[in-house]
């Protein structure tokens, strides 16, 4: 019975189908919380992340609406709006975000990792897949751990992630997902 | 301005605790994100704000430190209180008279409502309305830095005396700690 697909084969193909379907999901919204940490700072905030194709909109706020901030990006430029303060920056060069904000953040990769798939193009290191779900991933020097999943509509999506590179770490808890058809 | 009148209302209560319901309205949607929890105030200088649902987070302020413990994210940050960081709406309620009148323009709006507008250019929110009924704090309404409304209603208020010990906090084992230095 050597020809019958082994467990890993069937996992591979349905992981293949699943990850393709997730990659094709262009419009989604994730609501939850984010904690960022580096050598000199630690911040946490409520997070509303809306994605339309390559356009990201992040709304961050502390308890009682404190320090509410809106970040928008089309992948090339990044806008930060806070009160009447407005900052725009070109983020096409790799370290642009860190130079401007002090935070080393994988903004281009996060929309993929949030959906539980690697960023296309950048060669992923070992992917650890169990029961068709991505459990951990190394990419571009980042170690990404997927610690929880849940089903929302017809998609199973991460509800808890941890992302680390050097002194920077981010923790995300996502309570609610809205995907393409519901938006 | 009317900070004296506001201080008169606030000074009536040295200890106060109760429940809160917070409704946060995103600027482009009428749907409110609701959260509930408990709070404690011991004037001057102590407050505790515990969000119990849908997420789990505890913020405690003493005259020395501002603690923020996010139980879902398993993080604890501690900031020195004397720091320049902007006053939060809660510090306004728990804060001392000098800080209140120095950092805000206070205008009475009638029926126990006071509008507080931060004087500082850089502030954590745009405006705050604090409302009282019969000398009792009943609610707050915050307009955040993105022009979004956050409405807080207080209930089951209890004035029995609190002490500093009610605001003790020790980080749980296993949490990711970050202490901002003095």
| Total beta-strand segments of chain B | 12
Count interface residues per chain for the largest interface. A-B, 30 and 38 residues
Describe the strand arrangement of the main beta sheet of chain B, using strand numbers: 7-8-9-10-11-1-2-3-4-5-6-12
Average pLDDT for all residues of chain A = 89
**How many angstroms does the end-to-end distance of chain B come to?**
34 Å
Largest sheet of chain B: 12 strands, mixed
As an assembly, this protein is: heterodimer
What does this molecule look like?
The complex is a heterodimer of chains A (183) and B (182). Chain A is mainly beta and 183 residues long. Chain A is built from three helices and eleven strands; from the N terminus they run αββββββααβββββ. In chain A, a hairpin with a 4-residue loop joins strand 1 (27-37) and strand 2 (42-52). The radius of gyration of chain A is 17 Å and the shape is globular. By secondary structure, chain B is mostly beta strands. Chain B has a twelve-stranded mixed beta sheet with strand order 7-8-9-10-11-1-2-3-4-5-6-12. Chain B starts with a helix and ends with a strand. In chain B, 31% of the residues are buried. The A-B interface holds A 31, 33-35, 37, 41-44, 46, 48, 59, 61-70, 81-83, 85, 169, 171, 173, 175 and B 22, 24, 26, 33, 49, 51, 54-55, 57, 59, 68, 70, 72-75, 77, 86, 88-90, 122-126, 140, 142-146, 148, 150, 152, 176, 178, 180.
Helices and strands in order:
The complex is a heterodimer of chains A (183) and B (182).
Chain A: H1 7-23, E1 27-37, E2 42-52, E3 55-61, E4 69-73, E5 77-82, E6 85-90, H2 96-101, H3 110-113, E7 127-130, E8 133-139, E9 142-152, E10 155-165, E11 168-179
Antiparallel strand pairs in A: 1-2, 1-11, 2-3, 3-4, 4-5, 5-6, 7-8, 8-9, 9-10, 10-11
Chain B: H1 3-11, E1 15-25, E2 32-42, E3 46-53, E4 57-61, E5 65-70, E6 75-80, H2 89-94, H3 97-103, E7 104-110, E8 113-118, E9 125-133, E10 136-144, E11 149-158, E12 176-179
